[in-house]
Amino acid sequence: MWYDIEYQNIIYEMEEDCKRQSPKLQSENLDSSECEFQRKENIMKQYNVGIIGATGMVGQRFALLLAEHPWFNVTTLAASARSAGKAYGELMENRWQLDTPCPESLKGMTVLDAVAQQDEIVAAVDFVFCAVDMPKADIRALEESYARAECPVISNNSAHRGTADVPMIVPELNAAHAEVIPAQRKRLGTKRGFIAVKSNCSLQSYVPAVYPLADVEDVLVCTYQAISGAGKTFKSWPEMVDNVIPYIGGEEEKSEQEPLKIYGKATETGVENAVLPRFTAQCIRVPASDGHMAAVFMRFAPGKKPTKEAILETWKNFSGPPQELNLPSAPKQFLHYFVEDNLPQTRLQRDLEGGMAISVGRLREDTQYDYKFICLSHNTLRGAAGGAVLMAELLCAKDYI
């Protein structure tokens, strides 16, 4: 019975969403099965994709996630001129940094020059994922060049996060920010091309747990960030063994400013950043291979402090479009709360639901703020490549790509 009711709800939502997106459908008397068929047809479409920056650590994560993806078929790998012209497997033989081996299906592909061979790349793909190590000005120019060539760009880079008409999407939280894409296309002079970015990896370890709660005014967060966030392993960064570094360049500014865009409002010209909550952050590099943890303190507006039980209930029930649409990379349960005092732990929970779920624990009242808790995310999955793939799935399902 539960399945039947839930199925009917899904069909209804698909029908209404389908009609909202197409004026033609609004004027037609489509029944549920017809609209469901159109939605399924859109979602089941196959897309040819490219990875720009395929040799870096995040690029390697993209390669693993996309090699067996049900919607996305990797047709192009690109990197710098230094790497171009070589087979991906040969190039990565001594550079592969992940525990899972390089996908066999990609090893024979010739890596292209992301700049000099842009036309060839654009002709071979429906859109590209971008994770490059370049100066910000060069990244902005590269991504806009692809977008102006009518190739959508799903970016892991920070260069365009501050651009008002470039949506910075955490799919469960602010999927509606995709509505600014038409404004960006107008600015770029494109019909298909646009840029969408994901937020900094540190944000995934606290913003998802704060966002569902109403009336939060102040957030203090200390993040404890794994070395893969710097593109390193213990082999390449032995100085991090048995060591903690109390500074990560540029990270605290991102951790304080980027949440305001996520909380912001989509307008006709772009995203207008929010004023509240106010965030203050300290970001610390710790000797963990993967997984960013955060100690979070939050204060609510006067008279608006909820009970602990209400917060836990909100976290338990919170979901977003990825869960509603059953997107391939979406976790079934977005926020997992652990009642044990010693959880979540980096090694135990970072891979929860394929590294795409958020782990929360130790919620309790504080003597100076209202509440404090611990939060954990996988920084190169949910916080980087996985989050970008999920955003691409969302934009495909919503017909922006």
Q: Report the C-alpha radius of gyration, rounded.
A: 21 Å
SS summary, helix count: 17
Mean pLDDT: 91
The biggest sheet amounts to:
6 strands, parallel
What do you see in this structure?
The protein is an alpha/beta fold. The chain folds into three domains: 2-42, no CATH class; 45-163, Rossmann fold, CATH 3.40.50.720; 201-378, Dihydrodipicolinate Reductase, domain 2 (2-Layer Sandwich). The chain has 17 helices and 14 strands. The strands form three sheets. The chain has a six-stranded parallel β-sheet, with helices on both faces. Strands 10-7-11-14-13-12 form a six-stranded mixed β-sheet. β4 (127-130), α8 (136-148) and β5 form a beta-alpha-beta unit. α4 packs across α17 (381-397). The relative contact order is 0.13. Residues 1-39 have low confidence and may be disordered.
A few lines on this structure:
With 401 residues, the protein is α/β, with parallel strands linked by helices.
Keywords for this entry:
401 residues, alpha/beta, Rossmann fold, 6-stranded parallel sheet, 17 helices, 14 strands
Q: How do the strands and helices of this protein lay out in sequence?
A:
Layout: H1 2-21, H2 23-26, H3 32-43, E1 47-52, H4 57-67, E2 72-79, H5 88-91, H6 104-107, E3 112-113, H7 118-124, E4 127-130, H8 136-148, E5 153-155, H9 171-174, H10 181-188, E6 195-197, H11 207-210, E7 216-225, H12 251-262, E8 265-266, E9 271-272, E10 278-285, E11 292-300, H13 308-317, H14 321-324, E12 335-338, H15 346-349, H16 352-355, E13 358-365, E14 371-377, H17 381-397
Parallel strand pairs: 1-2, 1-4, 2-3, 4-5, 5-6, 7-10, 12-13
Antiparallel strand pairs: 7-11, 8-9, 11-14, 13-14
